[in-house]
Amino acid sequence: MHLRPVQFVDTPAAHEDGAVARLAGGMQWFAAYEVLDAGRRFTVPVAQVANLGERAATLHARVISPRPAWQLGARTLRFDQPQVAGILNVTPDSFSDGGARADDPAGAAAAGVVMAGQGAALIDVGGESTRPGAALVWEEDEARRVRPVVERLAAAGALVSIDTRKAVVMEAALEAGAAIVNDVAALLWDDRALEVVARSGAPVTLMHSPDPKSGPHGGQGYANVVTEVFDWLEARIDAVAAGEVDRARIMVDPGIGFGKSLSDNLALLNNLTIFHALGCPVMLGASRKRLIGALSNEAPASERLGGSVALALKGAEAGVQLLRVHDVAETMQALRVWRGLRDRALVS
Predict the structure, then answer these.
(1) Domain boundaries, the chain
(2) pTM to 2 decimals?
(3) At what angle do helices 105-118 and 328-347 cross, to 10 degrees?
(4) HEC string of 109-166?
(5) Which residues are catalytic?
(6) Which end of the chain is more exposed for a tag (fewer CB within 10 A), N or C?
(7) Domain 70-347 CATH assignment equals 3.40.50.150
(8) Is the dihedral of CA 269, 273, 277, 282 positive or negative?
């Protein structure tokens, strides 16, 4: 059984007690669930979800439970409203910027500081491209790329996450001042990755890809991409928690663009609210992705700002807690307008 929150409302004030529920302690309220059960699809009011049995009760409790903030040294990452993670690639073959910040740690760190000043809650630093066809980077080279950038950002007071699937790089970045691990392989590519995260106590983002041991862009397709990605992430959360990582320090990412067709990506984006039933904060990384080009006359990565902002707002509407973006200033402006609309709707 799967539950997807639907029938969102502007304010709970106009509804009887118990008729609507708050989504993950955030800014959205909803009145019903779409239930997917043994091939059946039907809608149930929130007030009646308890009648569906123990599995439904478990999923409902996860959906409505507030996501505890992550206290990371002197910094706090809150999940009661959408936050932005600024993407900072220090690779020579980045799909988004063509390697503009490679081999320039000071310039890369300065760009990260600018993103923090524009409103990014954290800076996500990556030293290996994960675009289709990208070459594998030796772990020591990747560590050398990211360490000086992370050190400078941490010294400047920025909250930093390290985007890597390699344990050596995780260790180097965490020692340099990174506070969060963001792994496109969900700690499966490197056999030591889970141990490193558990030992460090750092929070971790687990992203879905069909075959993370081989690379992020494999797979043979899906019968139902939404429920299959959900089930994979649910099992992965259980496995990582069993490896002594606190569930409250796990975030999930459905992996837009990783081993998925255009149709798969659109289905995931249209069903983002289902992932709140995993009980973890949700990250959405759709910025400048190929799907935007596919829907806009093959626009290159440098010309996908409008589509990127549209998908960020789609995520905000779905209650996504962290939006991973290249264009921080423009996304923050869109979110501030969105937040103003939400605040007004709550009191109207």
Answers:
(1) 2-64, 70-347
(2) 0.95
(3) 20
(4) HHHHHHHHHHCCCEEEEECCCCCCCCCCCCHHHHHHHHHHHHHHHHHCCCCEEEECCC
(5) 289, 324
(6) C
(7) no
(8) positive
